[in-house]
Amino acid sequence: xxxxxxxxxxxxxxxxxxxxxxxxxxxxxxxxxxxxxxxxxxxxxxxxxxxxxxxxxxxxxxxxxxxxxxxxxxxxxxxxxxxxxxxxxxxxxxxxxxxxxxxxxxxxxxxxxxxxxxxxxxxxxxxxxxxxxxxxxxxxxxxxxxxxxxxxxxxxxxxxxxxxxxxxxxxxxxxxxxxxxxxxxxxxxxxxxxxxxxxxxxxxxxxxxxxxxxxxxxxxxxxxxxxxxxxxxxxxxxxxxxxxxxxxxxxxxxxxxxxxxxxxxxxxxxxxxxxxxxxxxxxxxxxxxxxxxxxxxxxxxxxxxxxxxxxxxxxxxxxxxxxxxxxxxxxxxxxxxxxxxxxxxxxxxxxxxxxxxxxxxxxxxxxxxxxxxxxxxxxxxxxxxxxxxxxxxxxxxxxxxxxxxxxxxxxxxxxxxxxxxxxxxxxxxxxxxxxxxxxxxxxxxxxxxxxxxxxxxxxxxxxxxxxxxxxxxxxxxxxxxxxxxxxxxxxxxxxxxxxxxxxxxxxxxxxxxx
Amino acid sequence: xxxxxxxxxxxxxxxxxxxxxxxxxxxxxxxxxxxxxxxxxxxxxxxxxxxxxxxxxxxxxxxxxxxxxxxxxxxxxxxxxxxxxxxxxxxxxxxxxxxxxxxxxxxxxxxxxxxxxxxxxxxxxxxxxxxxxxxxxxxxxxxxxxxxxxxxxxxxxxxxxxxxxxxxxxxxxxxxxxxxxxxxxxxxxxxxxxxxxxxxxxxxxxxxxxxxxxxxxxxxxxxxxxxxxxxxxxxxxxxxxxxxxxxxxxxxxxxxxxxxxxxxxxxxxxxxxxxxxxxxxxxxxxxxxxxxxxxxxxxxxxxxxxxxxxxxxxxxxxxxxxxxxxxxxxxxxxxxxxxxxxxxxxxxxxxxxxxxxxxxxxxxxxxxx
Lengths: 514, 369
Fold this sequence. Notes:
Chain A has helices at about 60-70, 110-115, 120-125, 175-190, 205-210, 215-240, 240-245, 245-255, 270-285, 295-345, 350-425, 430-510, and strands at about 135-145, 150-160, 170-175. With about 525 residues, chain A is mainly alpha-helical.
């Protein structure tokens, strides 16, 4: 049905359609060298799949495309800052397969690079600027008093990348600044399929305690938890090659003054709007019935659902462990005091001394439990919490794809209706108005055809982006889990080593009782 | 039936009734008398213990024999000693607390009910837990016994106040009184805090159990490199949790039980002092009565006899009490020494085992990364 000729697509930064064969998206462990260029067009429109399932290709173009894309990527390239926008797409198989062939469009696109190999390899190819950036969030400082008080954090960036003006610099930021950054990134990138790392959660209770000036164990822990979470948030954000180059991110890291992000407050009008939108989205999600003919997406969605469930369960168990370990620490300390008292009242000298030693050992052990509980929390528990939220973002991106599909389908249906209307026009009995009506409808149809094409392109694009993003995400996930869990286990090792030391010191004391 | 095999001689009987499991006190490896609980059989709401005795003493009809006794009978035995005036001068070993099978039974019930809803792993784990805790089921008092004790204590403390107020001429007993009053309270506190500490430890071990299960599920579901990783870490948690559970169980055995035992024994020692004080009061009253009788010159002989009796009783109690209290100290020191040494050795053993487990796992994981 789509047999109209296509106008050459406008000249914009574009990306290519990618052949989504199996090789393109290798399992994270396999690093497949590429020869799948995203290339455009001259597509064989014989397949009937919903997603790109192509079998033909244009090999000559491959090498060039690829090389070109490689060269063009320079970190300072202004094009990179521009939002990814739609490019021409070969009519790869929408539900109603078009029959025309479209001329290949070769533009440069950073996107191309991400269609294959790991980002690490890509970054090396970029020549000179390897991914070398380290951000730390430190020195939480309470500014102001009472309910208007807030915590300011120092954000220090150390990087040799040419992206930045300096190699080592710092700025002061407050929590709402981080939320503002995330909000901007989310509005720019989520709907086209990029997994934007979620910002740390708000906590009215936690913050109120800080504002009120309560300086106790729990409020200190709250600040430390937040500081650590903000640091992880920034590192995750800059690890994303696209987000790293976003001007908002650069501004956040570099500029001394940042306009206050007021719309991040939960109860502001923007906040309420967000809540309303979220609710609306939830309803919509239930009503969209997408014909998923791409098994990859179905499989991945199921995978993330399962992962979500399991991680939440694991997270709950680890939080419980943290809680019990803290209790253990407190109870051990109390026992230590009690044992000391018992030792004091014991009238046999040697036994009395041994009991005092026991009390000392238990006191040291209680500190050990406290330290271990912290490791449980900051390493293990927070990792899991982060990933539960990240998977929320992943699920969101899949939802956007569904919405994109829906939009495309809606345009399609409308076009269909208009065409039917056009056909009916032939039989109208008002000849004088006929030509006018015919012209009107023709215009509408043209417009809708454009929309349909755009819708299809958007859908293809978001599908492609998601595949890349998921691949990258999974790689990061594997790295993160391995690294942090090993670190956590090492903390357990340390605890045991200390325990051994303490009990070894006590044993002779116990034996000395006579 | 109840008398079978029992003899009234104080010496060997005082060894016999030291609780269903002689873990805290050193039963002398004496050929003349060895007693142990060779079996415990649980039936609905009662437990039957098999008391096995081996003795070369002539008092017994046979050299080796076993009888079946229930907890109430142990209590009966204890109370018989307490009520017997001849034993007034001894620290009568405290009666063993009623075995708390309620907790185990609750778990057993949960296990049965949950069979359908739990995963296979969870079920097996719960079963293992149950077996481990049933070992240590002789714990705590049930509600009824606690209530009885409460009333007993109310009566005693009223008297105790009366008696404690009288300062003793004898330095030894004065010191012992002060010492025991304070010691008993401190042991009570230490025992309670120790129990709380061990409870937290067990809770943490339970969490590790759940963590192991979740990790296992994650390992079976994951399609990335992480699947092997998760399975290995799950295995580690499973093993380390077993060790942690053993640590808690050993602390329970070597420390908590020790403190509980000495809580009860120090009470028994206090009871002895109390009986001696009563004897003293009786003696002093008898003296006063004698003086009165002499003054009135009436019933003098009776008063004299009574006074002599009271005097004799009091002196007998005092003499035996002194020795008992000295022995108590010796036993206490020995028991603490043994248990603290064993505690430290076990803690070390478990920590070393745990360390090796963790290090080996970290080594493997790092090697694969």
